[in-house]
């Protein structure tokens, strides 16, 4: 989803981006860290909150990312198709300290491709990189899966803020690049 406004000779873009992945991998905290620079140790922070809109500057242009959080829907192993509707970007999140959340990635990718355009710009996000002693998924494994599936890849920590902005920015920048190639 994107719109282009002619007002004031400025361009204005709005991109819908969805957060997906198993329960408790840190999706809500990645969003609150990015949008409000807040972290919740025992988070039930965004239950009921559907999305947050975050302004970003890409190549001197203001871009708005409307970032959707599942608000706990994924506890039922799936989220509704309305959640994916119009999405042009996705952060597919697992927890580097819980292998089962990495093993679920294929299932989430299937779901994403079932409900949305194949061209959704997607980044595979290995969250909780601060939990070094509890790591169950190596960086190489994450990178390897991302390469095999044609995804961007990054490891983040919502706890210590590492790479959180970079994860969102990578997706938004790529969407912007694709769109500006089509428009121009
Ligand atoms: P969601 O269900 O995927 O939205 O996950 P939450 O954001 O609710 O996080 C689940 C739990 O993991 C909470 O207790 C968070 O405090 C914790 N958590 C989230 N991100 C991180 C992180 O980067 N590092 C650590 N150590 N814990 C995190």
TrEMBL record:
Gene Ontology CC annotation, any one: plasma membrane
Keyword GTP-binding (UniProt): yes
Keyword Cytoplasm among record annotations: no
Coiled-coil portions: none
Keywords: GTP-binding, Lipoprotein, Membrane, Nucleotide-binding, Prenylation
GO molecular function: GTP binding
Membrane-topology descriptor: Lipid-anchor
Record's subcellular location: Cell membrane
UniProt family annotation: Belongs to the small GTPase superfamily. Rab family.
Name of the protein: Ras-related protein RABA5a
């Amino acid at each position: 989803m994107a719109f282009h406004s002619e007002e004031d000779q400025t361009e204005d873009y709005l991109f819908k981006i969805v957060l997906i992945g198993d329960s408790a991998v840190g999706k809500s905290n990645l969003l609150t860290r990015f949008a409000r620079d807040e972290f919740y140790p025992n988070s039930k922070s965004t239950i009921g909150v559907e999305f947050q809109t975050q302004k970003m500057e890409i190549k001197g242009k203001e871009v708005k990312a409307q970032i959707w959080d599942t608000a706990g829907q994924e506890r039922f192993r799936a989220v509704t198709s309305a959640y994916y509707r119009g999405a042009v970007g996705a952060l597919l999140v697992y927890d580097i300290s819980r292998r089962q959340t990495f093993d679920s990635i294929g299932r989430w990718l299937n779901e994403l491709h079932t409900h949305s355009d194949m061209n959704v710009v997607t980044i595979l996000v290995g969250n909780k990189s601060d939990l070094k002693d509890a790591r169950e998924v190596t960086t190489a494994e994450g990178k390897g899966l991302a390469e095999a599936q044609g995804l961007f890849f990054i490891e983040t920590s919502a706890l210590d803020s590492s790479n959180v902005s970079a994860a969102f920015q990578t997706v938004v920048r790529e969407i912007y690049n694709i769109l500006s190639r089509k428009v121009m």
